[in-house]
Amino acid sequence: MNNTEFSALLFGGSVVAGLIGSLTGLGGGVVIVPLLTIGFGVDIRYAIGASLISVIATSSGAASAYVREGFSNVRVGMFLEIATSAGALAGAALAAYVPAAGLAILFGCVLLFSAFAPSHEVRSGPGQEQAAGSIGARLGLNSTYPTIEGITAYSVQRVPLGFGIMGIAGMLSGLLGIGSGAVKVLAMDLAMGLPFKVSTTTSNFMIGVTAAASAGVYLHRGYVDPGLVMPVMLGVVAGSLTGAKLLVKLASTQVRMIFRGVIVVLGVEMLYNGWTGRI
Questions:
Q1: 277: phi then psi, degrees, rounded to nearest 5
Q2: What is the pLDDT of residues 1-31, one digit of tens each?
Q3: Which residues of 230-258 are buried (b: 16+ CB within 10 A; e: fewer)?
Q4: DSSP 44-56
């Protein structure tokens, strides 16, 4: 396979990765890392370096569209970014000391946990009134988002728990190069009670900043290969813009099914390859 064919295949796979990452809030890295390590035999640390750059591209490509449509909760995203950025720096510093197979196994465990964790269903009515004096209300984090029925209000709950989980999410981002969107979505959906579409779109808004915090560490250590990064980044941007348009038309249950299906397959594959030493 020559360089042109290699780049073309990378671009095609990255378009799919960006589409999936944009729809689910996982970031393209959740597909890029397995694609490069398993499909193309790239060392996992170089795959993570390329993934972090692609995650920044995913966030840039999709986040603006989601903010414009009224899905992303920018106040929640900026508040939680304090925890994720600090965690990302810590994770990137640890990455050099963790074996590649260990990273792959950890990656697989995170994905499977994300797939089988119970999901939050948005409550309306009295539940919103009860949360009026909560931390989320005092910080001005409660908001609304568009649905088929119209504009729906929601309240942000258990803010300290969500903030702590976001620190762990940031550390996983620095270690694995995935943007830790899976953990971010779960933290906002399950712990903080945000609607699933708000969780995925706010995750897309956040992952670029989180990835940027750790990408500099990988760049300094020489794990960012321009020949690898360029087709991946371009493909992810194209896919994420397409995903942003599709999300508006899909129901939350459909988005959740895509989310779970993708990460189950990738989680099992990464666990197998890490356990057998193929990475």
A1: 80, 20
A2: 677 888 888 898 888 887 877 776 666 666 7
A3: ebbbbbbbbbbbbbbeebeeeebeebbeb
A4: HHHHHHHHHHHHH
Burial environment of residue 266 by CB neighbours within 10 A (0 to 12, 13 to 18, 19 or more): buried
Do the beta carbons of residue 144 and residue 124 sit within 8 Å? no
With CA atoms as reference, report the closest residue to 21 among 188, 215, 177: 177
HSE-up of residue 78 (Cα within 13 Å, Cβ side): 7
pLDDT digits (tens, 9 = 90+) for 68-120: 778 888 889 889 988 888 887 888 788 777 776 777 787 778 778 767 765 55
Structure tokens at 267: 């989680």
Which helix (H) or strand (E) is 186 found in, with range?
helix 181-186
pTM of the full predicted structure?
0.65
